[in-house]
Amino acid sequence: MTAPLSPRTIAIASGKGGTGKTTVAINLALSVPNVQYLDCDVEAPNGHLFLHPAIHTHHDVRVALPQLDDAVCTRCGLCADACEFNALAVTPRRVLVFPDLCHSCGVCTYVCPVAGAISETTRSIGTVSSGTAAITTGGQLPVAQGLLNIGESTAVPVIKMVRQQAQPPFTVLLDAPPGTACPMVETVRGADFCLLVTEPTPFGLNDLELAVGVTRVLGVPCGVVLNRSDLGDAGVTDYCREHDIPILLDIPFQRELAEAYSNGIPWVVAQPAARAQFQALFHAIHAQIAAAENRP
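Now predict its structure.
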């Protein structure tokens, strides 16, 4: 009997959108036991379109915001000078606060020389929902997703709260935002492994290189899933071979899978035999983690 695999945190990411990142994350979650799916793509979460979870709890995500007392403030300008994000502006009559630019760092309160001139309030920037999704083979898949409010630009606090929904007995699958900006970095940071989903095109290669660079700065081992592997060119394969990055799964283009996706049907539901491929991928990821941990 095979020994159970230790719980891990696995981020599924991509340097660009449209590579099939959520497709891989969803099908992996539906194919192996004792996992939890966390949708960290808070600007456009779409895992729920395939999993249809029953939501049990909602959490409001609130961040700190400076609040100035015009009667006390001397408009010395120290707060605005210290703000790296230009969220404060001094006018002859008052100090203006721009909530959309504020990163809730608190430096304005720290540098203010006048007691009581700056206090902190909070404002909502999004929500995090948690629940469970039924698995066709039986059982329940714990699910959580974040949703950034329309018009907000700072996704990181919402992603942090999504990650706080992780339940230690489970291996946690983090469906990361596309790209290599702060939201992707926040999702991948601290993970045991990052699975990078790409496609064999010049755009796929360019953005894969950027994503690999992020994982190496963060010290997170990575591997690749090559989607639509029979289309495009050999650039991604050559790059992975040159940089010793394992391609853990390649998925040839199949029209029936694209049709199932467009109808919100996961691959492993449309073709149950495909579960074996994702189970093999799951074990390959754990083997890569073990190898990384054993390196001197």
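The longest helix spans residues 275-294.
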